[in-house]
Amino acid sequence: MSAxxxxxxNTSAHALIQVLAANAIDRVFVVPGESxxxxxxxxxxxxxxxVVTCRHEGGAAFMACADARVTxxxxxxxxxRGPGAANAAIGVHAAQQDAVPMILxxxxxxxxxxxxxxxxxxxxxKMFGSMAKWVVEVTTPEELAxxxxxxxxxxxxxxxxxxVMVVPEDVQQALVDQHDWxxxxxxxxxxxxxxxxxxxxxxxxAHKPLIIAGGxxxxxxxxxxxxRLAERHAIPVAVSFRQHDLFPxxxxxxxxxxxxxxxxxxxxxxxxxxxxLALGTRLGxxxxxxxxxxAHPRPRQxxxxxxxxxxxxxxxxxxxxxxxxxxxxxxAALAELPATGEGLARDDxxxxxxxxxxxxxxxPDAAGRAVDDRIPFFQVVQALAAxxxxxxxxxxxxxxxxxxxxxxxxxxxxQRLLASxxxxxxxxxxxxxxxxxxxxxxxxxxxxxxxxxxxxxxEMAAAxxxxxxxxxxxxxxxCYGSIRLHQARTYPGRYVGTDLASPDFTMMSRAFGIQSxxxxxxxxxxxxxxxxxxxxxxxxLEVRSSLGAILPAGVSHAAGVDLAPRSGHQSL
Length: 572
Description:
Elements: H1 12-22, E1 27-30, H2 37-43, E2 50-53, H3 57-71, E3 75-79, H4 83-98, E4 102-108, H5 124-128, E5 134-137, H6 143-156, E6 162-168, H7 193-205, E7 209-213, H8 222-233, E8 237-239, E9 254-257, H9 264-271, E10 275-279, E11 302-307, E12 321-324, H10 327-335, H11 346-361, H12 377-387, E13 393-396, H13 403-408, E14 416-419, H14 428-438, E15 444-449, H15 450-456, H16 460-466, E16 471-476, H17 481-490, H18 505-511, E17 515-519, H19 525-534, E18 539-544
Parallel strand pairs: 1-2, 1-3, 3-4, 4-6, 5-6, 7-8, 7-10, 8-9, 10-11, 11-12, 13-14, 13-15, 15-16, 16-18, 17-18
Helix pairs in contact: 1-2, 1-6, 3-4, 3-14, 8-10, 9-11, 12-19
């Protein structure tokens, strides 16, 4: 589209936004700044793009990560230079770790001041070069749309990830031609017929095959292809780190997840496999239990590794069959081949793995370990699981409070788990806002500890502003629980820096106009969660959670901070 044909102003900032809009970017997350006022002004002329104003750049970047996880399209976050970019860096790291496409746009000092150590200037190539897939600093107005077009392509190609666009403030308002360039998606590739035939032969000989399924299946048709493959050839499925919703956790072929706390007995059972199909996973350190399963660098099992990025295949593990291919297309092709499980006792193999998984996932006995400091958080998760809608999206912050979700909650798609693989605290609230904005009819639950919630809980302002019916559940044990756990194991009784003087979260939420309750007893949980799930507006439950329940038995958990007594129920 030529400049003269455009119905809106034809500045370089408009050209940038036009390319994003042409590529189905319909939402951006911003913390406004003077260094990109030209881009903000251009957004005024694109009513089809929802501008979500955030309270902190870290929260905005987390929202972009979660939005990308849900849509498969680049999440876009816009921030000002210097402090804004530094605050947003956590989201760039999360996008890289999570393998989700993201575009971070940073306003920059004027061109004449670049590399002169001007006010708030940073060399972003040095800052983000090891995290981002591409860092580009635009130098002319004409480059802005071209860079945006490439940013979309790079963010989504191969292993999806973050791209950083740096835009000096004086290149945003020049008159340039406008374009509707659309990035053509990569054609899904699959192995050649002879490669498929070879793996089919391997399957026909395997008594104990195992699929390790990764985030590459988090796309339209991915879960269905994975299911067809597993059922066609009677292959148990273990999901990679924090990818619980890829395969029904209630299915007889579900073998569990490979996570931070996968029990040694479960890993040993999985290691008894004789053929591993690692599909759509990068086989990172947590999924492979510190590069021990499969054995590094040459696995004991026959290893088939399929991932759409040549940098990943054979990176750490020498595969017997290494496919740089689309895992969904590959799984679909393998599922079309004749079934191979007959006569190989695979039902017994699957039943063995399933029995171990069920033992691990069984809810603990509430009376099995007495605690005197309020509610063990697994009881909160258990009460939620009993009432969770079939389409619930659970957005988790980082912390020990989340462990019962990973171990016990029985995810069945379309239920979703949104938890960052970067382990960053502060992800939960922004992710919940992004997920609810993206799917207003879905029930979204945010679960966070008191430490993580105080990092980005202010982003619930967006939920209040837009009336998003998110259920926030805050586990308050007045402690950085995960670090306290490590201290208790390594330096018992010597606790430094992990006590927290938490605020009254119910009062905090009420200040945002959000109804809230304060829970101190397990018998309050069911009804309070029911009220929160039924609400058509944001709702917060502060749970006085047990610290002793997460620490090793017999270890003192005394904290230097104590909560003042509060009423058992607070609401608007």
